């Protein structure tokens, strides 16, 4: 298959920031390269300046996932290019670099610098952050997203993926604005806003205050947003949010995604990407016919001869 003209051996990517390939290679050695869990690798989001990230605690476990408040710790653009990029370039799959700017100028600096490196196959714009010039979260507003994409589009011949935030009133409109401004693909969802209190003292549990919810608890929300966005844009959609099995991945493909990404599940099982790809391959019809949106079942209605009833079928 291919994504934005880049050949991929399969449709399973990682969600940015949820799999540290450099640390995994240190832990597992070259076996990681032989059995790499993903068909393309998306880097942790990088910013122009180095960031320490948020104070701990940075994670809160929910009944079905996580709230994270990591705060984008990273070495900054120079540190990434000098030390991380050469290591990520050794991965056996195409590399997608995720970038975030706190202004359009910062975004432009990042895209320009990353785009000229031949190791980089695609660039993902993480627009889930406030623009310090306007105070608006870039990805929450269609016009703001369009201005960001228009600014960086001429700076890169690499395909540009815009990573949408679910914390927008109409993600479909943001996706359409990104497409109009020249994006080659959109990916969604990023994390939903979430909060947890310390059971002992009642204060905020996360060092950063609030955080982002991910994992199986967001899957239904993600599926609905992917379905809505895929129905609105012609560019490929990369679907993610709570994918933990091949069946989950197939649901996203049915919703209209061209590829999927695995995030939180990789914390539980670092090889989850491979397992999910294998489960998906076993489920997919050879002609791809089971990717088509299935007609909505009449929930709770049992047809004569149906056994078990529709709502027990899963
Ligand atoms: C610990 C953690 C760190 C993340 N870091 C980033 C990041 O750096 N950039 C980004 O675009 N998304 C980041 N995300 C969001 C994921 O890439 C993904 O969009 C989201 O978690 C939904 O997928 P999931 O439910 O499979 O985890 C992070 C998520 C988690 C849980």
Q: How does this structure look, described?
A:
- By secondary structure, the protein is α/β, with parallel strands linked by helices.
- The chain is built from 10 helices and 14 strands.
- The strands form 3 sheets. An 8-stranded parallel beta sheet has the order 3-14-13-10-9-8-7-4. Strands 5-6-12-11 form a 4-stranded antiparallel beta sheet, with no helix packed on it. It has a two-stranded antiparallel ribbon with strand order 1-2.
- Helix 7 runs parallel beside helix 8 and helix 8 packs across helix 10 (272-283).
- The two termini are 29 Å apart.
- Bound molecules: flavin mononucleotide.
- Residues 15-18, 44-45, 66, 68, 70, 72, 98, 126, 163, 189-191, 214-215, 218, 240-243, 262-264 line the site of flavin mononucleotide.
DSSP summary: helix tally? 10
Mean pLDDT: 92
- From the N-terminal CA to the C-terminal CA, the straight-line distance is 29 Å
Strand content: 15-25%
Bound molecules: flavin mononucleotide
Number of strand segments: 14
Tell me the radius of gyration: 19 Å
Strand order in space, largest sheet: 3-14-13-10-9-8-7-4
Largest sheet: 8 strands, parallel
Note the quaternary state here: single chain
Helix content: 25-40%
List the secondary-structure elements in sequence, H or E.
EEEHHEEEHEHEHEHEEEHEHEHH
Residue runs with pLDDT of under 50 for 5 or more positions: 297-314
Please state the structural category: alpha/beta
Shape: globular
